Amino acid sequence: MARPDTYFLGYRQSEQQRLQQQAQELAEEADWLFDQIGIAAGMRTLEIGCGPQGCLAQLAERVGPQGTVVGVEQNEDAVQLARQFITEQQLPHVEVRLGNGKATGLPRNSFDFVFARLVLVNIPEPERLIDEMVALVRPGGTMASQEADWSGSLFYPPIPAWPPLFQLMEAYSQLNGIDLFVGRRVPSLLRAAGLVDVQVRPLISVYPPGHGRRLLKWRFIGNLRERLLASDLITEAELTELMADLKRHIDDPDTLVVSNPMFQVWGRKPG
Q1: Is residue 6 situated within a structural domain?
Q2: What is the domain extent for residue 123?
Q3: How far apart are CA 163 and CA 154, in angstroms?
Q4: I need a labelling partner for 181 at 20 to 30 A (CA). Which of 96, 127, 130, 169 fits?
Q5: How many domains does the chain have?
Q6: Would you write out the chain's pLDDT as a tens digit for each of its 271 residues?
Q7: 4 in a domain, yes or no?
Q8: Which of these, 241, 220, 113, 232, lies nearest to 169 by C-alpha position?
């Protein structure tokens, strides 16, 4: 049965830990984006779906104590972890709110910059989130997104377990109203929402042995294991065998692991 408003990857402890690690792994990419946009001291900024860490510290460093960083996150455990993080980092100008990114309740036209990373690919009705983000940006401000597109994942030599696992993930996402290929649509979605001067930067990476994201797809499937089995799309024995085969091939240092593409997309609200 479809879950109309469930975050695709779930909220297990392992997923929270992965998101904390991801904040470090993707920090350089975020810094590049923030440089292009010109996040500066005194700005009022917002991150939707910040999870347990997100880009809160990076934004806080740029806006300084004269600025503001607000994070919105719908999972209570992630909110608590994020609040603990900002306390440990001594970031008094950062606050994290528990709330739905599609209906934040925050003042319209009140932020200089609104950002979301790897959120649209995990939720139904991504257009609603974009509409909310655009509504929150002040005229002349910027909205940005960094999104994945599940096409293009490459293992070489080819891993026999990956095509059926990919088909499984695609079938499960469709049942739950998730678009695994939303990354390619984000530029047009931002234009449709009224943004102008929309720009796009594609990203693709190679994950060598020992890289924290080399096992990313295997971890995704592990996080979803109970949901996949409950969906009756695969048996437990079949899933166990496929996951073991996938990990065995990825663990081989001679296997080339290439990420699926991600797209950084940003645009300006007229005014």
Answers
A1: no
A2: 13-268
A3: 11
A4: 96
A5: 1
A6: 334 445 555 555 667 677 778 888 899 999 999 999 999 999 999 999 999 999 999 999 999 999 999 999 999 999 999 999 999 999 999 999 999 999 999 999 999 999 999 999 999 999 999 999 999 999 999 999 999 999 888 999 999 999 999 999 999 999 999 999 999 999 999 999 999 999 999 999 999 999 999 999 999 899 889 999 999 999 999 999 999 999 999 999 999 999 999 999 999 999 8
A7: no
A8: 220
